[in-house]
Amino acid sequence: MSKFFFKGRIEKKPKHSSCGYNTKRENKLGTETNPLTLIVNTEERQQQLEAQLAVEQLFATITVDANAEEDITELTAILNKPVTTVFDKTPNRNDPCSCGSGNKYKKCCGK
């Protein structure tokens, strides 16, 4: 059959839900269903982290082990997320200049 007479798609578009891929899944680290796993050395450090988790509204399972090395990398990764950089909008050519000279931007800083 010629492509000029065919209307519609040749192959159907796959449905993600039928393929086993859940698009509405919420599997964030630090929630009740997926808590952080932290290892600390002392009970005092455990109480400090529990206070910090309460402020940040995160959930974690904290294990106290004096022989093991302290591991709070998951918590520091969540707390130190990179922030999107936002730049100020540059003025148009006929707007007043932002340096405060009173001239138009095109005559002052927009050379």
From TrEMBL:
It comes from Photobacterium aquimaris. It comes from the Bacteria. InterPro entries: SEC_C_motif (IPR004027), SWIM_PBPRA1643 (IPR026368). This is Zinc chelation protein SecC.
